[in-house]
């Protein structure tokens, strides 16, 4: 059986198993998100490198390319870890029945794009003498990856039909509420508690259930159910009608353990990119991304640059906005 960390290790992502286990105490789907990011990274670089290589001909341009890391990304593409990572990922998709989430669906979209660009990747590999022997192997891996991804989505659709996924979704909501009530997230500032709990719901069975609903009334009712439950919980912790103090929030985020701050920065930035890619409007997610990826001294300056983030954000509005943004992707 291939577990999540086997895939992470195969992609040569610089993170230890102990670190993953520690982060997953709070962010239950972080390893899935890392795998998605790794696969998507292969996809993005594969799509871009051919055109970029053609445009970077002059010496100054090549120097800038090296300075800003673009060259390194393309060099990583020809590393044999691409083969090892995708190979591990195909096995992971085949064995991945511990839980299923919207991550599988996103990987399916990436797999389709990789299928379109694989000829360019193989052409790139064939230009490098020491990797020529890997071309056929990589071609087989691409084929198997696409097949296994398609099978996973078919399995996911069948799974939704066969079991009461609504029950699983409600269980997921109840679990997050129980974790909030038992103060499992108290090391986080209240806005980050809200963000984390909603991410765990949407990244798991709550997301599967919501995404399979075709009736707008049922979608609204599920969203209202989550909103009401969270309102009841957080009104005991803060005045929901008061404005979030960004300066105080930046101070609270600054004292987080680096591992927790980095995890939230990764999750929120990935989420922000997904919203923007879908031509969506991000406010709460962008706020979390800035808070966790900027120093406390620069947070307010960064927020001032963002017209999409209101200067007067109440806890109630933040909760509703965060929920809507999670349900969008």
What would you note in describing this structure?
- This protein folds into two domains: 4-162, no CATH class; 165-328, no CATH class.
- The protein is built from 17 helices and no strands.
- The chain has helices at residues 4-10, 17-24, 30-55, 59-67, 70-77, 81-95, 102-126, 134-162, 165-181, 190-203, 205-212, 216-234, 246-254, 258-277, 284-293, 299-304, 315-328.
- The chain starts with a helix and ends with a helix.
Summarize the structure.
This protein is mainly α.
Feature tags:
74% helix; 329 residues; globular; 17 helices; mainly alpha; 0% strand
List the helices and strands and how they pair.
Elements: H1 4-10, H2 17-24, H3 30-55, H4 59-67, H5 70-77, H6 81-95, H7 102-126, H8 134-162, H9 165-181, H10 190-203, H11 205-212, H12 216-234, H13 246-254, H14 258-277, H15 284-293, H16 299-304, H17 315-328
């Amino acid at each position: 059986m291939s577990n999540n960390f086997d895939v992470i290790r195969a992609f040569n992502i610089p993170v230890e198993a102990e670190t993953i286990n520690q982060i997953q105490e709070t962010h239950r789907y972080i390893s899935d998100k890392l795998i998605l990011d790794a696969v998507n990274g292969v996809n993005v670089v594969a799509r871009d490198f051919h055109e970029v290589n053609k445009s970077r001909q002059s010496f100054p341009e090549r120097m800038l390319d090296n300075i800003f890391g673009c060259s390194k990304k393309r060099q990583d593409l020809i590393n044999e870890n691409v083969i090892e990572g995708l190979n591990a990922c195909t096995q992971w998709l085949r064995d991945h029945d511990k839980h299923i989430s919207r991550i599988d669906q996103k990987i399916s979209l990436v797999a389709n794009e990789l299928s379109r660009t694989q000829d360019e990747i193989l052409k790139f590999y064939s230009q490098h003498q020491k990797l020529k022997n890997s071309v056929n192997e990589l071609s087989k891996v691409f084929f198997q990856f696409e097949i296994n991804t398609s099978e996973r989505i078919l399995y996911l659709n069948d799974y939704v039909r066969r079991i009461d996924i609504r029950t699983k979704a409600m269980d997921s909501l109840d679990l997050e509420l129980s974790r909030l009530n038992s103060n499992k997230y108290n090391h986080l500032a209240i806005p980050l508690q809200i963000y984390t709990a909603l991410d765990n719901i949407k990244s798991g069975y709550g997301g599967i259930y919501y995404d399979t609903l075709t009736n707008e009334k049922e979608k609204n009712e599920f969203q209202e159910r989550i909103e009401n439950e969270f309102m009841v919980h957080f009104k005991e912790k803060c005045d929901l009608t008061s404005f979030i103090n960004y300066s105080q929030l930046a101070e609270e985020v600054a004292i987080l353990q680096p591992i927790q701050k980095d995890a939230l920065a990764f999750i929120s930035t990935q989420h922000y990119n997904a919203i923007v890619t879908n031509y969506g409007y991000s406010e709460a997610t962008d706020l979390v991304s800035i808070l966790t990826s900027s120093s406390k001294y620069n947070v307010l300056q960064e927020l001032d640059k963002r017209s999409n983030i209101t200067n007067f954000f109440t806890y109630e509005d933040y909760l509703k906005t965060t929920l809507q943004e999670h349900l969008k992707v």
